[in-house]
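Intended use. Records like the one below are meant for learning the mapping from a protein sequence to its folded structure. Do not use them to infer anything beyond what is encoded.
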Amino acid sequence: MCPSTFLYDPNKTRVWGRLVISLYKRLGLIQVIEAQDAKTGAKSFQATNCTVLNLMLLVFKPMSENNLTICLLVLQVLCSLLAFFIRYGISRFVY
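Structure written out for the chain above:
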């Protein structure tokens, strides 16, 4: 599987949208590719969607659906372990 993308025109995108896309690009959360329309010659940009699935595909490169599912399950288990550690390990120092 490869990350899904969307096209956007920076001239039609509001300021906040351009700022968010720029921030995500600098943090490496999305990949932005410049595209040019063959008919009109207008510049547009193609960016990966902002989902956990696409982030995993960007980090670990294209992979099969089975491997992507396993990676997402491992991520979910690790996040749950971190949450339990915060809840039961660190909370005794706060309360």
